[in-house]
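Researcher: Watch the backbone:
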Amino acid sequence: MSNTLILAFAGGSINTFVYIYSYNYAYYQVLNMYSVGLEILQGVSATLGVILTVPIVSFLAAGALKGFRSDQ
């Protein structure tokens, strides 16, 4: 899942990186751009989503299968 997340993030933000590179912005200008902040927030939220998905789904599956027994 982490490889998929990295590729999706890179693919979604490649146009922002090309835009920054083509106009040769200074470092402080890049840090203050709205689109860069948006890309960072999207990356953080996607990472939290992937990290929290596994424990939440495991907890829900354990609760749903609590009464299920395979020896019956």
